[in-house]
Amino acid sequence: MDLTSLRYFVALARNLHFTKTAQELYISQQNLSQHINKLETHYRTPLFYRKPKLQLTPAGKALYDSCIKILTEEDNISRQMNDIIQNNVGSLSIGASQYRGQYWLPLILPDYLKRWPNINVQVTMERSEKMEQLLVSGDLDFFVGIKHGDDSLLRFIPLMNDKVYMISAY
Fold first, then answer.
1. Of 17, 64, 154, 156, which one's alpha carbon is 20 to 30 angstroms from that of 74?
2. Where does the HTH lysR-type domain start and stop, copy by copy (predicted)?
3. Which residues sit opposite 48 in a β-bridge?
4. Beta strand 48-49 with 55-56: parallel, antiparallel or unpaired?
5. What is the Cα–Cα distance from 62 to 140, expressed in whole angstroms?
6. How far apart are alpha carbons 27 and 12 in whole angstroms?
7. How far apart are CA 104 and CA 162, in angstroms?
8. Contact status, residue 154 vs residue 167, Cβ threshold 8 Å
9. φ and ψ at 38, to 5 degrees?
């Protein structure tokens, strides 16, 4: 059983016509029949009555209902994966000193959250020494504050002339 066969089955169950379904799917009628036969072999039961006209069997109706759920869930998974790949969902852990957290972040975060509404942002406000420890341990993505040490595991990016840096782990 594979998703392609399930999709073909759902299309045939909706149309109840091999030729029309094959044309709709841009495949040969023979290819469609092979997918349906594969499913019937897999489940060891006919999924369609073929005469006098194409109709779903009770097993076909049950499979159709299940396929709708499976394919809907697969679409949801695909959407979630695309969102993750495109950085539309996820989390961001920001650290800031008390001053920067109270005065800078309120100026910056609203625009960020408008642009990336599905990103879960967590803010931690601590002393710079503590923030550097959290960065090195992987508990923060970055922090905005004053450069405390000269840790070779951290990268310091100047943001202003008053020695304020954005600091991230390598």
1. 17
2. 1-57
3. 56
4. antiparallel
5. 49
6. 12
7. 14
8. yes
9. -60, -45
Ordered domains of the chain (ranges, CATH) = 3-75 (1.10.10.10), 88-169 (3.40.190.10)
Element (H, E) at 14: helix 3-15
Show the tokens assigned to 40. 């019937």
Amino acid identity of 152?
Answer: S
**Type of residue at 1:** M
Which residues are bridge partners to 169 per DSSP?
154
Structural tokens at position 73: 């869930």
Q: Name the 3-class secondary structure at 165.
A: strand
Angle between helix axes 3-15 and 58-85 (nearest 10 degrees) is 130
pLDDT in tens, the chain (170 residues): 799 999 999 999 999 999 999 999 999 999 999 999 999 999 999 999 999 999 999 999 999 999 999 999 999 888 888 877 777 778 889 888 877 778 778 888 888 888 888 888 898 888 878 888 888 888 998 888 777 766 677 887 777 666 666 667 77
The kind and range of the H/E element at 119 are strand 119-125
Residue 43, amino acid: Y
- The two tokens of residue 49 are 């009555």
Read off the pTM: 0.56
Q: What is the DSSP letter of 138?
A: T
Q: Which residues contact 17 (CB under 8 A, 6 or more apart)?
A: 54
